[in-house]
Amino acid sequence: MKKNNIKQEVITDFGKNWETYKQNRYIEKFNKPQFERYFKNFPWKKIKKHSKGFDAGCGTGRWAYFVAPKVGRLYCVDPSSAINVAKKNLNKFKNCFFYKKTLDEMPIKNNSMDFGYSLGVLHHIEDTEKALLDCVKKLKPKAPFLLYLYYLHDNKPKWYHFLWLIADTIFRKNISKLSFKKKYFFSNLIALFVYWPLSRFSLIMEKFGIKVDNFPLSFYRDKPFYVLKTDSLDKVGTKIEKRFTKKQINKMMKKCGLNKIIFNKNAPYWCAIGFKKN
User: What is the percent of the chain with per-residue pLDDT over 90, rounded to a whole number?
Assistant: First the structure.
């Protein structure tokens, strides 16, 4: 029997995450600015109304919601129960097709897709490079692939990464072992007593003209509490979380058959676009 490149417990956890935070009432209000950040360098001019593409690890469909109106067909792939949430969130789009499959089981022909993307997914998979390769195989030559992987704080001071190591050891590595109810409880406490005060402190400092790029959780300074709760559960609830430097991601993308790689200059890090080689 073929072994999937992702643990079942990780699939189950993320299914519960997205069943809890469905994004249904907030999908456009909260996610549009983030979508624009992710897709800043995406070559929309090369994407036509008849183009076909895929969302590798679609979750609630929060990014597919903005891609679907621009393309001919969009295949949404996710192995968890989140696929049912995506179906509801995207029910007004008749060009979306849903597969409850892992990335190494995608029922999509190789060399058939005009584009693809995977945002915040492959760092939760045991073999990230293999998962990326599975995605690239589906693309036509010269087709773009947008990738977002957690960064290893390689553009931050050393003390920043040291703080993260402490927090990761105390919080994620312990909380991720608990039942989902307990994960949910503790993630909400962290959102309230860690994410909220630190992010709002950055917002206040920014208003005084202070540069806050290196302030912990400054990325969330203008985000609503719903997003803080969602991301808190995402961060502390998963048993597998890998992080990569920009150099490692660039090397991985090239090894998997992508070239002309461009990295976004702004957070979230690292988000990059590459094109499949001929």
Answer: 94
Q: What is the pTM of this model?
A: 0.94
Dist CA 272 CA 40 (whole Å): 10
The pLDDT of residue 26 is: 78
Residue 136 in tokens: 């690239």
CA distance 172 to 168: 5
Q: DSSP label at 270?
A: P
Whether residue 2 is predicted with pLDDT greater than 80 in this model: the reply is no
Cβ proximity of 118 and 135 under 8 Å: yes
Position 202 scores a pLDDT of 98
* Residue 36 CB partners (closer than 8 Å, separation 6+): none
Sketch the domain layout of the chain as residue ranges: 8-152+243-276, 158-237
Closest CA to 183 of 26, 31, 14: 14
Please return the burial class of 159, using the count of CB atoms within 10 Å of its CB with bins 0-12, 13-18 and 19+.
Answer: exposed
CATH class belonging to 8-152+243-276? alpha beta
